[in-house]
Amino acid sequence: MEKIVKKLESRGIRPTAMRLITYKRLAQLNVAVSLGELEKHFERSERSTLFRTMKTFEENAIVHQIEDGTGVIKYALCEEDCECEVGNDLHLHFHCNSCGETVCLTDHKIPQINLPEGYVAEDINLVAKGVCGKCNDGLE
């Protein structure tokens, strides 16, 4: 837990109990999750507290949002040195049509995208969809 405390403090986040257990749960899951999915794990906490925790994490580059085409925003932990900057920290996401999981493929970086003059990208989200390795193993 001390490692999580240091991580949060290094990003200027006060390590409250809710923030610590939320970070720990996100690290355990290792997939992108919606606020609703995360809320199921924390039955005794208020939805607004969890929402504020995720917003704080997002504002301080602890998590990033993923729009995977399901109509529900999901959150995933950022890489260690991530600053969530367009053009620097972008990676591919994969949504499995079979199990419904969305994962970050951080080793697969999105190349720099050159927009026409006058255009400014505020967010870039690239999601590949198909069947993940776990589900594909069962098909063979």
Describe the structure.
By secondary structure, the chain is an alpha+beta fold. Helix content is 35%, strand content 21%. The protein has helices at residues 2-10, 17-29, 35-41, 47-59, 133-139, and strands at residues 33-34, 63-67, 73-77, 91-96, 102-109, 127-130. The strands form two sheets. Strands 1-3-2 form a three-stranded antiparallel beta sheet. The protein has a three-stranded mixed beta sheet with strand order 5-4-6, with no helix packed on it. The N and C termini lie far apart (40 Å).
Features:
140 residues, alpha+beta, three-stranded mixed beta sheet, 5 helices
List the SSEs and their pairings.
Elements: H1 2-10, H2 17-29, E1 33-34, H3 35-41, H4 47-59, E2 63-67, E3 73-77, E4 91-96, E5 102-109, E6 127-130, H5 133-139
Parallel strand pairs: 4-6
Antiparallel strand pairs: 1-3, 2-3, 4-5
Rounded Rg: 16 Å
The H-and-E topology, N to C, reads as HHEHHEEEEEH
Helix content: 25-40%
First-last Cα distance? 40 Å
Strand order of the largest sheet: 1-3-2
What's the total helix number?
A: 5
Oligomer: single chain
Strand content: 15-25%
Mean pLDDT: 88
Low-confidence stretches: none
Main pleated-sheet profile:
3 strands, antiparallel
Helix-strand makeup class: alpha+beta
The shape is: globular
Based on DSSP secondary structure assignment, what is the total number of beta strands?
6
